[in-house]
Amino acid sequence: MSNGTVYRRETPSGASSWVAHVAWYEAGKRRQMKRTFRTKKDAQTSLVEFLAAHQTGRFVESSKLTVRNFADAWLDGLVNQGRKATTLNGYRRIIDSYVAPRLGDVALQDIKASDLDSLYAELLRGGGANGRRLSLTSVHHVHAALNKMLNDAERKGVVIRNVARLANAPSLTTARSKGLEMTVWTPEQLSQFLRSIVGNRNEALFRLLALTGMRRGEAIGLRWGDVDFRLGHVSIRQAVTVVDGEEVVAAPKTRRSRRTIDIDAETAALLEAHRQTQRDALARVDLTSAFDDRVFANDVGDPMRPDSVGQAFHRLVDKADVPVIRLHDLRHTHASHLLAAGINVKVVSERLGHASVSFTLDTYGHVMPGQQAEAAAAAAGLLVTK
Question: Is the pTM of this model over 0.90?
Fold first, then answer.
């Protein structure tokens, strides 16, 4: 059985604070815990949580463990769980760049939802490099990392509850709706680009990206064993990222990202020609044995790096007399063309490897304006008017 009270405390300098005091008996001995807060309301809220936690067996002993120290141990634990290097690198960058400088020395148990609200607001105002504002998407990722960390802290009995669930963080849907507007090529512009790169050593790579919606890392990680010329499809079984300057090859993060994509006959023929050209080139310099089955490699058979692919794309765009877009916008272009052509959104979602059809609709719904009118006409056509 536990009981508690809230009282005001003043220091000799005249500063005041509020204390939540909980007392209970354990093994015949009286135990107590005190926590200090800036406001009476915070102390009262905390006291209610303490007492409720006692009654439900979720009580957490007082600890001065800081956010920084817990985060270090938490990240080490994720390594032991076999988390992907890219995920760990992202979490570590978020903690080191945005969380630790502002909340690192605060006791983990003292963190409140209002502290996280203030953090997110500060980041949105100017928390990036050189005081630049962070985007809503970036702040959402900061929140996602904190939510994961505090959820694990709650599960391990380090904090009573995960206060990140109560914080006012931007949702990913909101962030995307207010983010940079995607730029896509029209079918005519894409055709012009593809005509302009005929004969280029990277023609097969950029045509494959443009006509499958594959991610850059998926294309770089593609092996000839993943290409089925007889059935006319490619299988996405691994993807390439770069962490701390080193290539990391791993299976795609989600089940839906591990997928099979049908390719058109012209793209398949181009890939076959690319394979022969690649083999001939390596044989001429006696590097056949160094080739590791990657579909896209450099002149000496080594895997292409993501940044070099982006640079090559931009050089070709500059020469093609088409609007400048990002390499990733080839993926958006493919999705937009399919949806505008009336392809079922579920098929589009599967080709792109999206987590859900709803995500595809949230991202690309604006490119299907005509379907609303078609739906209205179809519904009216079902009515019996006589």
Answer: no
